Amino acid sequence: MLVWLILGAFCLLLYFAITTMTKPKNFPPGPVGLPFIGSFHLIGPNFNKKIEKMAAIYGNIFSVKLKNMNFVCICGYDLFAEVMNENPKPYSGRPKLLMYELTRGPNLEGVVVGQHGPRLVAQRKLFHSVFRHLGIGNKNFDKIIVQELPEFVESIENMSEANQTVDLTSTFDCAVLNVLAYYTFGNRYSYGDEKFKWLIHCNNEFFKEVEQVFGVAFTIVSFIPYLHKIWLPKAGKAIQYCCRELEAFIGSEIEYHKKTRDQNHPRDFIDFYLEEMSSQSSKLFSESDLRKTVLDFFQAGTETTTTTLKWAVLYVVNNPDIQEKIHAEIDEVLGFDKWPCYEDRLKMPFTEATIMEVQRKANIAPIGVLHSTNKAVKLGGYNLPKGTCIVPCYHSIHYSPKHWKNPNQFDPTNFLDADGKVGTRPAFMPFGGGLRICLGMNIAKQELFLFFVTMLQHFKLQPPPGVLKLDEKYVSGGTLQPKSYQIVVKSRR
Ligand code: HEM
């Protein structure tokens, strides 16, 4: 009996070892992995940097095996165009990763990591219809952001009066989260509110820990089936704790909404969602999904926007000539006392182009959110079976010399046409694409414009005394962050 058991276990291990090393027929080239772990040892932290090196060896489409999962990395505009624009449907799935399961439950609820299908389409549709109701896409939604501007300016003013040099991160965190709080809960918080500070703290801790997902301990857990149910590394526990705290906060808001809502006058995203839940015949909406969806907004919509604003500050501090041009444009269009509105961008092409250039150069989401094939498909001449995980390498388009004059330089004219107007650029995809394009793209664009313009309307930003330029190297986290820095903020009044 024991012999059979040992033989059985050996065969199982052998089978597993083989599946972790073999690739499907006519699959993109790539490194041959090791038994059990595949090419994990070649990936690890800073995955995005390693993709670039591998692309130099294997070409624009190559594969990497991690455990028994097939990952296909795509580089270059042609492949992006196919996956994100021309034929997006087969690429609109998401892989099933342990990290996703830990934070969004075994059914991968919410929007970001959910599979594409009727449930996800319904959630996305509802999100857009609430936008339209609250006025996004036309002149009204930016009022939600504009109401945030006085406390935003006051917070920077107070900080810069009390200190010679300042770090604006906490102000950006508050302003950005408040916009989403207003959209989902129907109210904003004062920046000093203890509950609000806790919400921001949990969100930031989440992103601090996420980088550990590529560490050794997390790898072991993701490689041994069911181990996570009995043991998790510290980072895994911290990530779960942060999500639980955020969900509890969201849960209490949902309870409050249930008690106070008037079905004829929905106030915000939660009210609209509850209405869908009560009127639907199908089971496309549920309270648990609502909690995860709002969690998605907070996690997908805060760090990304805050990080982009931090890069924007860094680049205008390092390029005073560009800052001067933006000041001139603001002075001409707005003067000092008028709050900006999103439509003002049409009269401020240089400023708008600068924000786009910040997004291109900072490339904060270097592999975006992974896609996955939901049916067998042919890409770049190779066969990708259903369930292949697609890793888009955004650096390959945002820094392509084919599409940008001088990709390593910060140059807003990359986005200006010969007539001085802002033009679209096909190789610019900071919000991803296809059927999974960033749901909050329109909010994000409005936030970036309004917070950036308001800040430069009121302040001149400079490096600290004795520093010529801020460090432009990034550190990896949930997104590519600038290294922490301090600046001098001078009032322009
Ligand atoms: C500068 C700010 C932002 C950037 C750079 C950004 C970038 C991205 C990227 C690259 C993706 C993946 C798209 C893909 O899979 O192809 C994404 C997805 C998503 N983003 Fe954003 N985002 C930003 C702001 C926001 C905001 C403000 C929200 C608020 C609601 C948001 C909500 C989402 C959601 C829910 C998804 C998942 C969509 C899906 O899977 O169907 N994002 N974002």
What distinguishing features does this structure have?
493 residues, alpha+beta, Cytochrome p450, two-stranded antiparallel sheet, 51% helix, 8% strand, globular, binds protoporphyrin IX containing FE
Range of helix content? 40-55%
Q: How do the strands of the widest beta sheet line up side by side?
A: 1-2-6-3
Q: How many strands, what sense, and barrel or not for the largest sheet? A: 4 strands, mixed
User: Which band does the percent of strand residues land in?
Assistant: 5-15%
In CATH terms, what is the architecture?
Orthogonal Bundle
Class based on secondary structure composition and strand pairing: alpha+beta
How many strands appear in the DSSP assignment?
Answer: 10
Count of DSSP H/I helices: 20
Radius of gyration: 24 Å
- Could you say what the CATH topology is called? Cytochrome p450
How far is the N terminus from the C terminus? Answer: 86 Å
Topology (SSEs and partners):
Layout: H1 2-19, H2 40-43, H3 47-58, E1 61-66, E2 69-74, H4 77-86, H5 98-104, H6 118-134, H7 142-146, H8 149-162, H9 169-185, H10 194-210, H11 216-223, H12 227-230, H13 234-260, H14 269-279, H15 287-301, H16 303-318, H17 320-333, H18 349-362, E3 371-372, E4 377-379, E5 382-384, E6 389-392, H19 395-398, H20 441-458, E7 459-462, E8 474-476, E9 480-482, E10 488-491
Parallel strand pairs: 2-6
Antiparallel strand pairs: 1-2, 3-6, 4-5, 7-10, 8-9
The protein binds protoporphyrin IX containing FE.
